Amino acid sequence: MPTVIVDGKDIEIGAEERLNCIEAARRAGAEIPHYCWHPGLSVVASCRMCLIETGARDAATGKISMVPKLVPACQTPAKDGTVIITASALVKESRARVEEALLIDHPIDCPICDKAGECLLQDYHFEHGQAERRADLHPFTSRRRDVGPTVTLFVDRCVMCTRCVRFAREVSGTSELMVINRGAKEEIDVFPGYPLDNKLSGNVVDLCPVGALGDKDFLYQQRVWFLKSEPNVCGGCASGCSITTEHNQDSVYRLKPRENPHVNKWWICDEGRYGWHHLHDQTRLLAAAHRTPASASQAAVGFQAVEWADVVTGLRRDLKVAKRLAVAVSPLLTVEEAWMLCAVARSIDPQAYLAVGFIPRSESDETYPGGFTIRAEKCPNRLGVESVIALFDPAVHHWEDLLEHVQAGGASAAWITAAYPTSASDKPWIDEETAAVFAGLECLVVQDFFESPLTKHAVWRLPAAGFAERAGTWVNAAHRAQTFQQAIRPPAGVWPEGRLLWNMLGRRGLYDPVAVRQQIAESSATFAALAGVLPATGVDLRLHQLATP
User: Fold this and answer.
1) How far is CA 482 from the centre of its chain?
2) Which of 226, 295, 497, 536 has the most C-beta neighbours closer than 10 Å?
3) Looking at the domain assignment, is residue 122 inside a domain?
4) Boundaries of domain holding 483
């Protein structure tokens, strides 16, 4: 087994692994500071912050010979016998001088900089910088330049790591960013007439190690040390990108990509990054409501707010009276919620018609040069819902099948779960003509995020939870199952679908998705791997015979 020596420790690496000295040192618990290097981008070795001492150990004699000068760790491969010294006096002095050079011309505007609290320049200065500033302090003002619809450039804060430029060329493939001028007058800018306006542009803000690139959506909204972080999964499309939801006092402020080599690597698209504002939309449904449908002797009564305890009993009663039940299981529900919904439906009507709910789609998948894909399927859990329904009915039906079933008179009641993030100002997910299919039913339950043409025909109108307000498991287009926890509480008056279904099943205590997941895993070979699913990276269910009708 190849061995690398890091600060006197022998570290084994894989024979086929291609690591640089930064990555090898991490195996030994030593973090080498760096600005320009990123594992998802090409190596330029320009910042010189990662300079180290290195050499090689002769396998036969054990004698170590050192390179006579410092070398950049990002550009130096770690091979069998490589010797790495990360904290010698020479290395420490080099880092201090690099930090000092960067800070000589850097505006000290940390109190108003959005990056304060998560800035590498701050962190590295306190850890590796000079004990005292040797240059005179003088006031700076950072020039602000608009580079695109979502990103602002603070020119004088830039340390010229060029991560953003390389990202635009290598990952998004759009090449809007460039370096202008030379020497001490170098700056980042966009090509004239080509603003930074691609669907991955927000990633350059995450890549920037300092406060040079600011996200307009987050700019001056919240100090990062007030934010709480929850590992989460993006619900914007079938890619199921691993993200971090950053929030404070039950309000989401930003979403950031979470590294996951099996799903999204280090990136997310702007559609997912900024796709959380519907959570705090003033027009979302916030209370359960019921109305008495029209009869021969009585006109229809408008919606009346009801307590959730009455929903639990009243919903079951009305659906049981109507008898023939059809259920649309939304692809935005988690595996656990979908399983409980099917179980509730079959407990009300043993022959209940189960179908995958409406699946929003764009024209086609969009794949970028860096390998990132934005899926045309704009829901996170179609595969999971299909596989859950297959546990109850081998013939998996879809939204179009359900519409035909209702039109043919096969159902007298329907429960439509939706939770689609399309507000009244957007084009609704269902049109008037399609909604009219459900108009003649004895009992229609609509569980959605916003009013839609369908809610006009509902007997029970129930609010739905958003992606950050629910917990459970989603299965993405690549069959990878990822679990996640609830990040924020839903607004007062909103029960997440899991809580309602848990109570309708007669379970005691608080809703526990882990208990439901365990039950599904124990009773189904399809989902057996869910018993050991890791939230960090998830598990590939293809290796465990995932059923895909």
Assistant:
1) 11
2) 497
3) no
4) 289-295+303-544
